[in-house]
Amino acid sequence: MSNYHIKHLEEYYQVYRKSLRYPEVFWGEIAEEHFVWRKLWDNVLEYDFSKPSIKWFDGAKLNITENCIDRHLRIRGDKTAILFEPNNPDEEAQHITYNQLSERVNQFANVLKNQGIKKGDRVCIYLPMIPELAISLLACARIGAIHSVVFAGFSSTALATRIQDASCKMVITSDGSYRGKKTIDLKGIVDEAVDQCESIETVLVAKRIQSDIRMKDGRDKWLQPLLDEASTICEPEIMDAEDPLFILYTSGSTGSPKGMVHTTGGYMVNTAYTFKNVFNYKENDVYWCTADIGWITGHSYIVYGPLANGATTVMFEGVPTYPDYGRFWEVVEKHKITQFYTAPTAIRALAKESLDFVDKYDLSSLKVLGTVGEPINEEAWHWYNDNIGKKKCPIVDTWWQTETGGMMISPIPFATPTKPTYATLPLPGVQLALMDENGQEIKGNQVDGRLCVKFPWPSMARTIWGNHQRYKETYFSAYKNMYFTGDGALRDEVGYYRITGRVDDVIIVSGHNLGTAPIEDAINEHPAVAESAIVGYPHDVKGNALYGYVILKEIGEGRNHDNLRKEINQIITEHIGPIAKLDKIQFTVGLPKTRSGKIMRRILRKIAHNEMDNLGDISTLLNPEVVASIIDERL
Ligand code: WT7
Question: Is the CB of residue 292 less than 8 Å from the CB of residue 151?
Fold first, then answer.
C-alpha cells in the first residue's frame, strides 16, 4: 500500500526515504492505486539527463479527463466540481457539479471535433477566468488536443508569438472580460494577433460581456450555438502516458518565451498527489486558489490536481481590490473556504490596507493557507498567519516552477513545522542539490548555493516545444546530470530550504516571471532609443519592480523625458502586456560593458538597489568611466 496521504512528520521522513531509495516503487504504487488507467505501463521510469530524455509510465494508456471527471460521477456526481465566483459580487455564483462538468466538457469536446480539431493539434486558449476556460482545457484533453493557454493579460503581439510558435489551429476566446470596474476587449486583441497567424482556421468566441464585436466570416464562430447542438457524450481519446497534454510558455533569461511541454501520465499523478498532501484536502473541503488558469498554478492547482481528487475548486473572475480590499475575505466567508492559496504580492498589497477589511468577515472555515510564486518576506508571512489564519492555519510556502509542473518544496500541513520565509522540505520524490559555482555539490546544512534537482520527478516538463536543444542548454547544461532551476537557495541547520531568488536574468514582478530580453527588445523598437537594459529592484508590494536604463539616440521633436517614459511603457504594453511596465526609467549616456560587449547587469542592479559603495571591481570594464555618470544621473 502507498502512503498516499502523509499525516505526521515521522511518516513524511519514512515516505521521503522510500521515495529516494525506491523511486519507481514509490511512484508506481501511487499511480496504480489512485488513478484509472486503460493499460498499465511497461516501465515506471526511463531517463537519461544527458540527452535529456525522461519517460514516466511509458506504455501506459489513459485519458486524464476520465480521472478528473468520469470516475467521480458514480460517487460524487452531484458534488460541486467548479464553483465560479464572478467579478461582480452582485452576480450569482455558479455551482457546476461533476455531472454538469461532464456534460459541458463532452459537449465542448464534440464542438472541437466538429471544427476539425484532432489528437495532437494545438489549440490556443485566450479566455478570462470564466467556467469556459477550465472546460476548454478539459475538452482539449478529452480528445487529445494539446492546449496552449495564454494569460488574457498578454498583448496581441505576445499572443501572436505564442500562436505562431506552436502553429495553433484554433483560438478560443470571449467577446471581452471584466476586471474590477473595467472591461477589456479580448476579441479585439485576438483579431490583431490572428491577422498575423496563418495557422489559425477557427476562432471560437464565448459571450461574457455582451459587447458588440466584429465577427470575421468563415473564421469566427460563437461558441454557445455550437455547444447547444453538440452531444453530451464524447468518448475519451485513449492517450499514451507520454503524449503531450499541454504547452505553457514561460520567460527565459534570453530570447523568446519557452513553450514548456507537459505530458499526461506523470503530470496527472504528481499534481494530484501534491494537491492532496500539501493542502491536506478532505472530501467536503472547498478549496480556492486565486491564480489565473493562464499560469501553471492554475493548470495544476485549479484544474487538474483538484479535479483528479474529486475536489470542489473555486474559480474567481475578479481582482482582490474590487469592489474593495475585503473581496478575498468576503468570498472566503461566503463559500466557507477551507484552503486558500495565493501569492505574496497579493498578501503584501492587502496588508497595507486597514484590518477592518479582514475583520468584517468570518474566516473560521479556513484550515490551510498557501503561498506561491516568489519568496514571501517575514512581515507578509506574519500578517497572513496572524490575521487570516488566526495562528491556527499552517502556511504552506510552496516552491515550484512552470517547468516542474507540480510543487517541489513545501511543508505538509500538520506534519512539517513551518518556519517563516522557508519553503521547508522537499516533497516525496524530489531530490535536491545545492551547487557551487565550480560545479561541485555543497553538502551539509547551513549552506547556500544554486538549486538543482538530481533525479527525475513525474511532472517535469519533457522539452521545449520545437526546440529540444534549448531545453537541454537551459536546464541540463549548467551542471552535469542535474536539472538547474535558475534559483538560489539556502539550507538551514535542520535541512529546511529557503529560496533566495533568481540567479539569472529572470525577474519576478508581482509573482509574474519576466525575462529582461523581450522587454529590452520592445523598448529598442522606439525610434528615439539606441539601447536599453532592465534590472529588478526591491519593491514593497510587487517584490521586485523593473528599472530601465535607456540610451537615447535623439529625443526627437516635441518630446521630452516625461512623454518618452510614457511612450516606452506604451511600447512594452503593446509587445508584452501591462505587467512588464517599468517603474523607473533612467536616461543614461552609456551602459557598463565587458570587453566582449556584454552588459554588466550586476553593476546596474547595484545602482538600482542604491548600493553604490559596493560595486566591486569595475576596472576590467570596456568603459569604466560610464559608471560614475550613471550614478550621477540616478533617479
Ligand atoms: C519561479 C517560477 C510555480 C508557480 C508560480 C510561478 C519563484 C515560485 C516560490 C516560492 C520563492 C518562488 C522561483 C521560481 N518561486 N514559488 N514559494 N518561494 N520563490 O511559476 O512563473 O514558472 O516561476 O518563481 O524563482 O523559479 P513560474
Answer: yes
Residue appearing with cell numbers 472541437: 112
- Is 502 touching ligand 1 by the criterion CB < 6 Å? yes
- Ligand 1 pocket residue status of 65, Cβ below 6 Å: no
pLDDT of residue 621: 86
> What are the grid coordinates assigned to 579, written together?
505587467
**Fold of the domain built from segment(s) 9-319+398-489:** Rossmann fold (3.40.50)
306 in contact with ligand 1, CB cutoff 6 A: no
Domain boundaries, the chain: 9-319+398-489, 510-632
CATH code assigned to 510-632: 3.30.300.30
Is the shortest distance between the CB of 399 and ligand 1 below 6 Å?
yes
Q: Do domains 9-319+398-489 and 510-632 have the same CATH topology?
A: no
Protein residue whose Cα sits closest to atom 20 of ligand 1:
401
Please tell me the distance between residue 399's alpha carbon and the centre of ligand 1 in angstroms: 6
DSSP state of 352: T
Secondary structure (DSSP) of 9-48: HHHHHHHHHHHHH-HHHHHHHHHHHHS--SB--SEEEEEE
400 CA → ligand 1 middle, Å: 5
Cβ neighbours of 594 (radius 10 Å) = 12
Mean pLDDT by 10 residues, the chain (635 residues): 86 97 98 98 98 98 98 98 98 98 98 98 98 99 98 96 98 98 97 97 98 96 98 98 98 86 98 98 98 98 98 98 98 98 96 97 98 95 98 98 98 98 98 96 97 98 98 97 97 97 91 90 92 94 96 83 95 95 95 85 91 83 90 84
pLDDT of residue 2: 67
For 304, phi then psi, to 5°, come to -70, -50
Smallest CA-to-CA distance from 274 within 476, 34, 1, 24 is with: 34
- Evaluate the CA torsion angle 34, 39, 44, 49 in order and state its sign: negative
Q: Which residues contact 31 (CB under 8 A, 6 or more apart)?
A: 37, 41, 44, 57, 265, 269
| Contact call for residues 12 and 249 (beta carbons, < 8 A) | no
Residue 452 CB less than 6 A away from ligand 1: no
Question: Measured in angstroms, how far is the CA atom of residue 284 from the centroid of ligand 1?
Answer: 29
Atom of ligand 1 nearest to the CA of 506: 25
Measure the CA–CA gap between 42 and 123, rounded to whole angstroms: 30
Q: For a ligand 1 pocket test, name from 508, 509, 514 the mutation site with the most ligand atoms within 8 angstroms of its C-beta.
A: 508
504 lines ligand 1 (CB under 6 A): no
Number of Cβ within 10 Å of residue 15's Cβ equals: 21
The pLDDT, as a whole number, for residue 248 is: 98
The angle subtended at Cα 237 by Cα 41 and Cα 468, nearest 5°, is 65
- How many Å apart are CA 632 and CA 587, to the nearest integer? 11
Q: What is the radius of gyration, based on Cα positions, of the chain?
A: 24
Q: Is the CB of 132 under 6 A from ligand 1?
A: no
Q: In this structure, are residues 401 and 506 in contact, taking their beta carbons and an 8 Å threshold?
A: no
